[in-house]
Structure formats: C-alpha cells, structure tokens
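Collaboration report, partner site 2.

Our partner group contributed sequences for two proteins of shared interest, and the home lab folded both. The records are reproduced in the order in which they were received, starting with the first partner submission.
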Amino acid sequence: MNVQSRPGGIGAAERADPMGANQGIERPRVLVVDDDERNLLAIETVLEEVGEVVVARSGEEALRHLLRGEFAVILLDVYMPGLDGYETAQIIRQREQTRGIPICFLSAVNKEAEHLMRGYAMGAVDYVFKPVDPVILRSKVAVFVDLFAKTKEIERKAKAEQELLDANLRANAELLQAEQELRRAEQRQAAIIQSLPIILYLEPLTCTTRCPHFVSGDFEAMTGYRFADVLEQPKLWAARLHPDDRVRVLAAIAERDRAGRLSVEYRWQVADGSYKHFHDQAVLLRDSDGSPLEFAGTLTDVSERKLLESQLVQAQRMDALGKLTGGIAHDFNNLLAAVLGGIGLIERRAGLADDHLKVLTMTKRAADQGSELVGRLLAFARQQQLQPSRVDIAALHRGVNDLMTHTLGGRVELEWSLAEAGWAAFADASQLELALMNLIINARDAMPNGGTIRIAAAHQSVGERGGPAGLDAGDYVVFSVIDRGTGIAPEHLEKVLEPFFTTKEVGKGTGLGLSMVYGFAQQSGGTIRLESRLGEGTTAQLWLPRAGEDEGGEADSAPELANQPAGRTLTVLLVDDHPEVRATTAGMLVDLGHQVIEASQGSEAIAALTANEGTVDLLVSDYAMPHLSGCDVVRLAREVRSELPALLITGYANADEIGERPDDVAVLGKPFTLAELAGAMRKVTGD
C-alpha cells in the first residue's frame, strides 16, 4: 500500500495564519477513499491547496490510515469492492478515536431520499455527487478543514494556558513550601536555642555585681528562676554562688570590668537547691567609634561535662587500682608459692599423726582459698591466663545447670539438647562455663515474663570456604543459647559485641558480658554468632575448636607424675631471688627425683651454668628479679648453651606480662603444685 500525498500550496490553516504564527504546525489532513485511481487523482488535485491529502483505495486501507493519525474530514466513495462506503462509515463511527471525524459520501448514483437517509444514518454529514464540481468540493472540504484547524488551535492554546496555570501553581506551591521550610527552620533554630544548655545575655557596663537586661534561651529551665526574678533581686546571683567559688568568681567579675573580657567556671545553686556547673564568658562590645557599649556573654551549663570528667577520673583510678591489684597479686603468688610448696613438702616427707595431718590439711585448704582469692583479683585486673584443655560436654552441662538453677528463679527453665557423638571442646573450662552463664543470663533478661531457654551442643565441620567468617577449617563444637524473648533490633545487632554497649536499662547491664564472651571465643580459636528478630527471640552460637584425641588438661596426667619421678633424672639450674620460694621449689624438684643447682640471681646462675656447662639439663628461672629478668637469664644462658631447655616461673598470671621470650620457653604461674611443675618440665624437655 502506498500513501500518496502532495505538499500542495497554501492550506486552510496557513491561510488563517498569514503572519506565520502557526509555523511548524502540521497541515490538516483529508482522507479520500475511492477504488478508482482517476477519481483519486482528480480529487487530490482539487484539494491539494486545502490540506494534506491522504488517499486510500479500499475501506480496509482507510481504516489502517485512521489508526495512524487524525483527519479533518473523510471523503468516502459509496460503492467499493470489499467493504463499501456504508460499512466503512459504520466501523468508523463505532471506534472511539474516529467517531468524531466528519464523513462526506461520494456517489455517482442513488440520489434518492432512501439512499441519502441511509448514508446519513451511517454517520455522513454531507453528500458530494459525481461528477464532482471542484469549486463545490473545495468549498465543502475547506469548511471542515478550517473547523479542524481552529479546534486544534483552541486545544493548543488551552494546553498552553493549562501549562502556564500548572507552572504558576507549581511556583506558588514551591514558594509556599519554601516559606513553610523557612518557618520550620526558624522554629527549629528557636527550639534548638531554647533547648541548649546555654544562655546569651547582654549586660550594661555599670552594674552592681550582675544585672543583665537581655537574655535568650530557656533561662528558667537552666536556673529554675524566671528572668523577672533576677531583675527584681539584683543580689540573687551572688547569693547563690557556691561558698568555695564566691571569692574567686567575684574577683573575676571585677577583672572583667578592667580587662574587658571574662571566662570563669563556678558552681551555682539553682532553684531546687542543687548545684550546677556554669561556664560564664563575656566580651566587651564597642561602637563604631571604639567607645565601650556593653558586655555580651554566654552562660553555659557544663554540668554534664564535669560529670564525664569525674567519670574519666574514676575510670583512671580503677585502671590504676587494677594495675596495683595485679602487682599485689604477683607478690601474694610468690608468698603462696612458698606456703603451698612448703606444705606439700611436709605432707610428702613428714610422717604425721592423723591429728597433725588434719591441721596440715586445714592449713593447705586455707592457702588454696588464698590462691583462689588471688585468681579473683587477677580476673579483676584482667591478667588471667587461659588454660585450654579437653572439656567434657556432659560434665559442663551438669556444672552450668547446678549453678544456674537457683539464679534463674522459678519462671525460667533450662532445656538442654546435647549431641550424641562424643566430641569435646578444647577451651578453658572455667571460662567456657562463665561464657555460657553470661549468655543464659542475657537470655533470661530478654524474657521478663519467663519462659524456656534452650541450650544445645552440636558438631560442625568447616571447610576451606565454609563456616562463619574468621574461622579456620576444622571441626568445631557449637553451643547455642536460644530464647524467645524481646530480641535485638537490627541496628544494634552489630554493636552488642562491642565493649560497654548495652540495650538494657541503666543499672541493669554493664555492656561487658557479650564482649567478654566474644574475646574468650576469639582467644580460644573460635567465634560467636548472633541471630535475632524483634519480638521473636535471639540465638547466640559459641563456636569452639574440637579437642583432639590426644589433647587433655594438664591435671589429667599430672597426678601420675606427682606420684613418680620423670623418666630420667635431670640436673636443674634453679634461679629465684625469693629464698623461701627457691627452697620450696628445690624441694619439689628433689621429690620428683631431680638434682638441683640453686642460684639467687641471674649473674650467679650464668656463673653456675658456665661451671657446670656439660651437666645442666634444664634452666628454671623466676621472671621478676632485680638486675636481670628471667628472659635475660634465658638469653645469656643460651649464649653458653644454645639448646638449653628453659622454664619461667612467675607470679604474673598472664604470659603477656613476660615480655619477649623464645617460643620454646614455657611459663608456669605461681603458686603451682607438684603435678603442674612436673607437667611444665615435661613440656619443655620432651620427656
């Protein structure tokens, strides 16, 4: 199908717009439908100046043209093969987008009224009979074209006016919004100034003590007094100064009048009788000639800052107390090492009667309690050392269950689910117990109305690319503590492991529990994972490495070593500046079947080693000694004997306190038992 059209001359729309105001607007289109090519050519020639002529040779082709654009008028032949003019007109009138287009029938016959009425019934607005008179046809079509052009022009103008109206409405709306934002900003600014713990004031030069004539901010909220009260009582300000600050502050006010500036902090008694800390600052304002006008100042409530400063001082005091506690515990460990070592020697060597043995047992129990007390002090000072060993899950279950039964109360129950396989965790048993207790207490606090806390122990194997982040490949025992409590908000889930972060009410949590559990898990080679939803509960998973078949606590094998000597007799060089500790340690070494060379300081030990170079099998040295530390003694000794096994004994519980030492040098904390000494010696000598 070819659509034939010719630009033609000046159309109707252009004739109505001689100044070219409508330049660029498309010419109205006329659709001519006739199956006779000659008629199409003739009509197209007649109408080419009226509008853009589009021709169609059938009703079907005409309908396709109508789908692709608008037309001012349709000239439709009545008789055509296929769809005739009446049927085509009926379809045009049935379509929503084309029913308003005027239709003029072209007919060579049937001028009778019956046929005319049928055409009008089909939607025709006029008839043009063939042969067509060019003038009549052009005139009739021009009317519809002009009407179409004017309608479009009206629509364009209405659209332009609507766009202008919309733009005006948008501009007014934006202006209104800007005004509202400005008012809101002013209100926010006023609210901020009103809520800040600061007062702006102006004060005249000549004033008895204090007499501001202008203040801004919430004066009453800061002081408890109305500004009118201050104006009525000129001596109120000075009278409410803290007695310890009064002389200093009045002197600063007098200096302000001379120097032209003020900056002083003081305590001031507000209306409720309490004292607040104020920072009072002022500068002298001058006019354009440099003459003094008045003082402009700010009065700031710094009570919170002062409170934070006092808390910082308290934290520093606690830190210093922790260091002091660690030092005291170290000295106590030395004393307890001598006491417990001596008691052990008496117990093993002296044949005591039962009543004497009973007294000795009581003394040993008291010394053991002292050792436990030192352990608590070291825990407070955060100097405790982890002692990982094989942890039996069933025993852990019994211990935690017994400890928590009375702590949780009757409204919370524990439900345990343990794995059937016999995997064991490799961790510090006491710290693992404490970590589970922390998680259980957190779960209890999340269920104020009570409920069931489920504790499960399961097995997980982590491949090279699997498992929680940070875990090495291997086997793990996973402890899960599950509650159906309030849950943790998503924005808090990443923070709850941070020290001092807590979602509990003030006074109900330190924010250290989960961070301690996390630190323990990380130090043990594991991790902790948290999953939580508000209103549904929380699951805390503690991942710990699985204990190997040959891994066990030192206490498991030490009792055998306590009752029999090591596999071979060693010559041990013992260095300790504490005579009592050195004596008891030497006695324990003798009881284990070894020979002992004693030295009271590092230089003496090096001399003894040089003199007995070929016979010394093991160096046992105290760490904290004057002149030369235990690490220094080991370093100098290995200059004489490069492969000499060495063991450091210390009252510090944390190996990190031992400074830089070779990896093959073991550390044994005081006080220690015969079994622990034997185990440490076995570790460094390989016997």
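Second partner submission, folded after the first:
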Amino acid sequence: MAPLARPPSSAPLLALLLVVAGCGRCGFQPEPGVKVVVPSMPTTLDWSYSDPINWANYPVMLATQRGLTTLAPDHSVRPGLASSWERSVNDSGQEVYTFLLREDVRWSDGTTPLTAQDFVMGWHRALQGRERGEMADLAGAEEVLALQERRAPAEQLQAALARTGVEAMDAHTLRVTLSRPRGYFLSRLANVYIFFPVPSAVLAGRGEEGIRDYFDRPRDGHPLALGPYRVEAWDRAGERVRLVHNPHSAFPPPLGPGEEIVPVLTLLKSEVGPALYERERVDFVFVDSALALQGKPPADLQREPLLSTYFLAFNTERAPLDRPEVRRAISQAIDREALMKGLLPRTRPGNELLPPELPGAATPEEAARLPDFAPERAREVLAGGPGLERPLRLVYRAGDSFVPETAIAERLVAQLSRVGIQVTLDARSDYSAEVARRTPAGPRAYDLYLRRLGADYAHPNTFFTLFERNGLHQTGWETQRGGEPMARFESLLDQADAEADIARARELYAQAQALLLDEMAVIAPLYHPDRYFRVRSFLHGVDVDPFNFLSLRDLRRAGPPTEAR
C-alpha cells in the first residue's frame, strides 16, 4: 500500500505564519470578543428565501433564530418556539398539527412579539424561494410549485399560497396541515431553517427586493433575531460576520458559576485558520485535515460524533456490478475495523446506513444480519465470476478533508485484491460531474465511488431520500429487475414515514435498509464519521452539532472579557 503522505516540510508552515503576521485587511484587525474560523461565509441571511448551498448559512441561522421544535441530547423532539402541539388526521387523510406558541418570546428589538403570522409569512416566502421543494409536504404546496413552474400570473400564485396548509388561528395559535402523515415533520422543524419564522410586523408592506435587502444588509439592529445572538455586520469583502448578544432572547445560554455571556462574536473565513489558532489570534477552528489528526492530539482537541455515514457505492448498471451477489460479496470482503484502524484518533466502523445513535436505527441484531466481513464467503462468490477479470475504477474526491478518503481508498484496493478484485484509483477534483458522467452506451462511467452522507434532521427518513428514484445516488439501481426493488423500497419508506406507531415505523425502516444494503447491495457502508475541532478552554458551549454545523446557542465564557487581539 502506498504511504498516506510525505512528512510536511517547514516551508509551508513558515509561509502561513508570514501571511498571518502581515495580514492587515483579512479580518484579523484588533477587536474585542471571540473569533471563530468557519469553512465558508453565508450566501444569504434571508433564511426563508435561502440558497441551495445552504450548509454555509447554518452557523449564523442557528445562532440567531429558532424553530417551532428543538432537539434533546438524545435527538428526541422537544418544544421550541411552540410550547405544545396537538396532532390529528382529518377526514381527507391529511395530518394536522395545532401549535400553541410561547407568549414570552420577543424579537431582538425587545418589543415585537412572536406571532403565528410570522410563520405564515415565512413559509409563504419559502414556498417561493430557492429551496421551495423542501416545503412539498405542506398541503397545497404542490399547486404552488406547479404554478411557479409554468410562471403563472402573480394573482394566481398568491391565491394558491393563501390555500396552503399554514394558518394563523390567532396571535399564538398556528395550524399546519400536511398533505399526508409524515413522521419526520417535527424533527425537520427543529433543524431546517426555512421553517423558521420571520418578523412579519416589520416586513409588512415591503416588496420582495426590499425584504431581501432587509435581511442581507444588516443595520440598525436588523434583521431581528430570536436566538441569543443577532447579526450586527456582514463584511463580504473581509469575509466575516459579527454577531452581538441579544439581551431580549427567550433562549439565553445556561450560565454556570463564574460564567458570563460572550457579548461579541466574529465568524470569519481563513485559509490559515490552524496557524491563527496556534498564534492565539482566534478561539475556535475546525481540524479539517485527516493528516493533521495523526500523531499525538493536542490537549484542546474536541470530537463530535456526527449523524453521518461514509459508504462505497456501486454502479449497478455496469457489469460485473450489475449482479447483486457480486456487490454483496464485495461488501463482505471489506474488513471495516482494519480499514479505519489508526487513521483517526477514534473511529466508528459500521456496516449499517443508519448511525446507531439515530432514533429508529436498526437494532444490533438487525445490523448483524446486514453484509459484514466474511472473506471466505466473498471469495467463493467472486471466484471466476464473469467480468471480474478487468480492474474496477474507484472514484473519490481529491484533496484533504476530515474524512481520510485517500487512505480509505488505498486500503480498499489492498483488501479487495485479497478476494481477486483489482481496483484502480481515480481522485477527482470534478468528483460530482465524474460520478454522474455516462458512457456512450448509456451507463455511468465509474464502477465504484466513495461518499459521505450526513443527516439534515434526526430521523431515518433523511438517510433514505438520497436512494429514492429521484435521489442523487447515481447508482442506477432504479433500473434493477425492472424497477420492482426500487418500487418496494419506496413503498416501505412511504409506509414508515406515515406510521404513527414508532416501533412499527422503525421495523419498516429496518426492512428498507435491509433491501438497500443486503438484498440489492446498492452500497456498502464503511464508518460513521466524526468532526474534530479545537477550542479555547475558557469557552464553554461552543460545539459542533451532530449535523456537522457549528453550534453557538449555548456559548459562554469563564473569566474576564478577552482583550482586543
């Protein structure tokens, strides 16, 4: 097996330090408060209109806003902006939620109350935004989406919006109607920020351009916030966002003895974040290099287990991987423990799609029945199989990340060679385009690819949507056996998503997972990734959540305020 990398020379580090020392206009001017290095700046602060590259927006959105629900440490749903709710199913089979809003919640101006109309306006805007498909479960959403597709007149669109399933019954009662029961809905409300409310009393009467300007040009205490912070400034050129404490928030961080609120917080992007941290110019930085995690870890290194799965995917349309028994045997040829050994400070190898920490995940007994390391059985199936005489091409992302992709790919080559499978590696900077590329004959060009899948919310549904007919799995498995397995898979998911009985829903998701991983062996899960970061010891509550987003909701500090740095 080829070495993972050469030991780094001192020249790159020296260059980084020289850049840091001479940085005058890159966001590190002396100023008070805590500084956090983030991988990317927001693309918008307009959480209703949003953006397809929404992951970059989450740190700010989660620090400044709140949803109807929130999640407990065990990922169970708890009240958020709603103090309680009732669920029912109407005569049409639609699921109806009636949310009672907290009456003590004020926006960050201290005077504007949260009302049900804030959700109505926000969700209507989300239905017209860049991620409007995320609202498809709402009753009436299908009509609104269709009208926008054919560019219907504005009055028709507004009339359709008024018929959608989000209604203000009174100032503090919100009724939400879904087109059909969806067990994941309450979990999505906690995390997916397009479901957050907007300050409708402030936005009333503004045109769409004026509303977008309101959100994306922070000034004079606006845009208003509900969380413990609000945005004071967004410096696009300097790539930083300044957040200040919101004293009117109904969700203050829990202060312990000797702790105090952090009044000013700056999020900034930098290519030299680790060097800035070493020079004590910033207080938090992600460790996004698997190579940097090897060796003795620093004392301030922290780890967050993600609700995430890294897997090997098969091109099911191309021989020899068009046969489930071949795909299953390859999965059985992988020793997941050995694959991950020594690559990171800690690893969670696994053969299941759903992480064990996820509510509704498979039981240990069910996971044991999924394909796992069984080399003798793999050799028996693969011996002399037609099509296996040619090397298989494994595509993965080029570049370093917190997932040790190159090392995993190289170890897969070695492990599969022991059962007679030859693999060539192809690290791609155009990874997504290459995985989707088709040959002149029709099937996609790759044989195998590596990918990480992360949860958007704490529910099994979020892991399965990628592999549905319209999901971006790029495996071609919808064509297998005339589409019957895919139809059965989607039927299981539809039943599970609509099932009110948690135990029954979990059983249906387990069946869907077995169909995907065992019967059809579309992918081979390898491990559940973790995210590592470094943070100053005086900071408490700054974290990475299980969805891989920076979490600042409980941020506080011990000791006197930081000096300007």
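Feedback sent to the partner group on the second submission included the following. The chain has a mean pLDDT of 92. The domain at 66-196 is CATH 3.90.76.10 (Dipeptide-binding Protein; domain 1).
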